[in-house]
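Example 3.2
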Amino acid sequence: MTKVKTNAMRVLDKNMIPYNVITYDSQDGKIDGISVGQKIGKDLQFVYKTLVTQGNSGNVYVFVIPVEAELDLKKAAQVTGEKNIALVPMTDIQKLTGYIRGGCSPIGMKKLYPTVIDSSASQFEHIVVSGGKIGVLIELSVEALQSVTEAVLQEVVK
């Protein structure tokens, strides 16, 4: 696999934030968070997925949650101050973020959307998130992820 710099890596480099790149083989088509976590041999509790949502207001929000968890849309709406919130259709992900499904990093999106990291991350020194390309992950500290995305920590999973 070639060492390609993704937008997420460029943002981290620019901000002098240390991170580790983890790559995996995606040729089998299994790019969901659980499959990816198993491929890289990491305990799934450290592997987080990025979900893009939209509220009634039309505002876009990003949630970073454990791969095995499900976003609680009621909690997500409360945290964002929206009446209702829904996942953005997969067909709109690239248009909004610049990333494709399976390679959507919370770092380096087209815009800096309000971002929430599930509070479960606060118990870990490092977590793994998408690196901005299918087959590429980034491991970094929760504090670093918070600082570069301006994220808040809140409980948002079921």
